[in-house]
Amino acid sequence: MIHESVQLLVAIADAGSFTAAAARLGLTPSAVSKGVTRVEARLGVRLLQRTTRRVALTDAGEAYVARGRQLLDEFEALERELSSRDKTIRGTLRVSAPTVYGSVKVAPLLVELARKHAELEVDLKCEDRLVDMVVERIDVAVRIASALPAEFVARELADDRRGLYASPSYLRGARAPRTLDDLASHALIAYSGAPTRLRRGRAVFATDSILAAREAARGGLGIAELPEYLAHDDVASGSLRELLPGALPATRKIYALYLPSRYLPPQVRAFIEVLAKASR
Questions:
Q1: Over the range 232-262, which residues count as b (16 or more CB within 10 Å of their CB) and which as e?
Q2: Which residue of 8, 44, 165, 255 shows the fewest CB atoms closer than 10 Å?
Q3: How far is CA 29 from CA 26, 36, 253, in A?
Q4: Structural domain containing residue 147
Q5: pLDDT confidence of 192, banded at 50, 70, 90?
Q6: pLDDT at position 206, please?
Q7: Which are the contacts of 215, defined by CB distance < 8 A and separation ≥ 6?
Q8: Taking residues 139-145, what's their average pLDDT?
Q9: pTM for the complete prediction?
Q10: Could you tell me if 184 and 155 lie in one domain?
Q11: Same domain, 262 and 125
């Protein structure tokens, strides 16, 4: 009962309302409301302030939820440890990754892992926001960054190698640059998220989407700065050519992040090893 009470209050705190918490827990709003009333009666304190529009935690509620999160994490870790002593890869693996890298590089690895392990369920979130790994119960977050928060365990996977790319059709009408200064006489495709953000040359196509920048480069509009992982297949097929290899130093790295714990579930360990092997 206590475990369920903690789950209930944590769900309300995360969802912000009885209705949303009820949907998350598979209950009715009425059941959630009655559950809160029972907890408050048992403890003899008010945990929530209720109005017609919102629900807010009292000071006692904040303390209850904060400690409750820790207890839920410890309880979940205990259950996973006991249920997987045979090292079977099963259960849910929750992964967060940047939108494009997650779709291009992470998703295929997870598909292959799920094919090999029939009892594994995958929940992949491809989005560029920084997720709260504790609140959203993320097992592994793949991040491309120059610096990382100290509270995570970080497995370095690879440098975020980037290069300059153009299509053969563009290069038929323009001499390939020999130095970065030669870009001043070239048409450039400007991507606002590029870490180096080249200022030389004339921007003929500007976008905030790296996929759109690649499409413009493949279409012969000019030279684009692209991550190596995204341009690799186009170079292999001949759709793009890399220019000035090594001219753009890597300023960021690709990491697999997970929360520190004495126990690392088998599915998490397996996925990190798959990531590391694919990044060599």
A1: bebeeeebbbbbbeeebeeebbbbbbbbeee
A2: 44
A3: 10, 11, 45
A4: 91-160+252-279
A5: confident
A6: 92
A7: none
A8: 94
A9: 0.69
A10: no
A11: yes
Decide the pairing of beta strands 241-243 and 253-258. Answer: unpaired
Q: Is 17 helix (H, G, I), strand (E, B) or coil?
A: coil
Domain termination site, one of 83, 103, 137: 83
- CB atoms inside a 10 Å sphere around CB 1: 9
Residue 4's CB is within 10 A of a number of other CB atoms, namely 10
Token pair for residue 116? 């090999």
* Cα gap 251→177, rounded to integer Å: 22
Beta strands in the chain (DSSP E): 48-50, 55-57, 91-97, 120-126, 140-145, 153-159, 162-166, 187-191, 202-207, 223-227, 241-243, 253-258
**Boundary-marking domain end, from 29, 64, 83:** 83
Question: Using CA atoms, how far apart are residues 227 and 149, in angstroms rounded to an integer?
Answer: 23
> How many helical (H) and strand (E) elements, i.e. helices and strands, does the chain have?
10, 12
Which of 34 and 152 is assigned the larger pLDDT? Answer: 34
CB of 188 closer than 8 Å to CB of 207: no
Q: Helix 2-15 crosses helix 29-43 at what angle (to 10 degrees)?
A: 120
Q: Which residues of 158-169 are buried (b: 16+ CB within 10 A; e: fewer)?
A: bebbbbbbbbee
Give the amino acid at 19.
Answer: T
**What mean pLDDT value characterizes the chain?**
88
Q: Which amino acid is at 234?
A: D
pLDDT tens digits along 227-255: 999 999 999 999 999 999 999 988 899 99
